[in-house]
Amino acid sequence: MKKMKLIFTATVFFVLLLPFTLQAQTDSLLESLESELPPKEVFEASTFKATRLINLHTVETLGEGILDFRVSHRFGDFSSGIQNLYGLDGPATIRIGFDYAVSDRLMIGGGRTSYAKMYDVFLKYKLLRQTVGNAMPITVTWLSSANITTVNDPLKALGVDNLTARLAYFHELMIARKMGEKLSLQIAPIFVHYNVVKQTDRNNLFAVAFSGRYKISRSMAITGEYALRAINYKTDLSGYTNSAGVGFSLETGGHVFQVFVSNSFAINQVQVVPHTTSSWKKGQIRLGFNISRVFALKRKTTWE
Amino acid sequence: MLASTSLMAQQKFRCITGKVSFFSETPLEDIEAHSDKGAAILVAGANKIVVSIPLKSFQFPNSLMQDHFNEKYVESDKYPKATFVGKIKEPIDFSVKGAYTVTAVGKLSIHGIEKVRNISGVITVVKGKVHLSSKFTIRPEDHKIEIPSLVFEKIAEEITVNIEMDMNPY
Q: Which among A51, A66, A91, A151 has the fewest CB atoms less than 10 Å away?
């Protein structure tokens, strides 16, 4: 019940923060021209700098014809101490993947993460785009992913091991608003489904993820995210915790480099949101980074 | 006839879907961008003209360029529009069909930096409507548009801008 309240409060907080704008001009004729304009079709640029923030996706999709090669890496626990160089010696997880934008709104992608030897494919679609002047105040993006673990006999203990038993699904509706030049906030209800789980777990999980970034220069930003799992998931029995991360992101031309600390060892959202086991309270956090390199495969030649 | 001329003197023409494009040519890379959301008002009697172009409306060959243009070059969150407020020097009889080569003197504001410019163009009067066309250059340096050291796109020292606007009385 307490958690429900927290989700509710956080949601209200985000919604209340949504509307505000500013303007400044001098010439009265210019002012009247601009006030009469229907600015509804000019879309806001770059709510977030990349399609992922830390572990979780953002509302961003790539522009049409752009290919993104992504490498993500998570080191071991800080709490493993100096002998293990605070986790830099590992064990580490890595995900390598590619994303491609079919259109300015539709992006597809896939990859493989070493954690549970999992392959993933996803589809991401921008449903609504925030406009300059607030005719549309938010950007809304849908994400669905299908994931398959290829660990040998992962579910032997459960007495099932077939293709369907290895599948898991992730669905997310991301709602974000660029609040101004520097601040962007996102809230995202999440639904996770595992076809087969341990007895102490549930097949279905609801969660809400909060993400934010604050730009400190043209190329740098401070980022943060928190995935709050909803009630009824057997937290205590399973020993799972909420995933949280804080980080820094740097963009240089076609590269986006994100470095952060997070308590999640996994990289794929379908593992991060429900199955994070290490806790911030116990110092079980780790260094991680995402590197994104984009290539423009297609050049636009026709103009609307 | 006199009455209609004096009426024309008060006349305002407006365009909100003007085509604006710019070109940057360097040996390494040619970059072009297009917008169809250029807006302008022309006050016939006073020969006054104001133009406003939302910078986020420019479409680039790929969205990476568009991103860099907005975030790194023109900083469109801080300075969302390029504007021009000026006066056309030559008298134009808006009741007479024809093409007038004109020069507008006024303030061009981009990236928060105003420059007094003489911009030439052609105003064509047809059946109570006006077509405005202009081609001029902008030096990014004049408007304190810095080129970040770590970007791919190399832009020219002079950018050519084309404007085509169909203006209707309003």
A: A151
Strand partners, A212: A185, A224
Burial class for A72, CB neighbours closer than 10 Å (0-12, 13-18, 19+): buried
Is A63 in Cβ contact with B63 (below 8 Å)? yes
Which of B42, B64, B108 to mutate to test binding with chain A, by most A CBs within 10 Å of its CB?
Answer: B64
From B10's Cα to the closest Cα of chain A, the distance in A is: 14
Asked if pLDDT for residue B142 goes beyond 90, the answer is yes
Q: Which CATH architecture group holds B11-169?
A: Beta Barrel (2.40)
Q: Is residue A43 part of a domain?
A: no
Q: What are phi and psi of B47, to 5 degrees?
A: 55, 30
Domain ranges across chain B: 11-169
For residue B142, what are its two tokens? 């004049």
Predicted TM-score of the model (pTM): 0.81
- Whether A25 is in a domain gets the answer no
Tell me the Cα Rg of chain A. 21
HEC per residue, A104-128 = CCEEEEEEEECHHHEEEEEEEEEEE
Closest chain B residue to the Cα of A24, Cα to Cα: B79
Residue numbers of the domain that contains A156: 2-18+60-296
Is A95 a member of any domain? yes
Residue A9 in any domain: the answer is yes
Least confident window among A14-28, A97-111, A244-258: A14-28
Report how far apart, in Å, the C-alpha atoms of A258 and of each of A34, A49, A148, A291 are: 38, 10, 26, 6
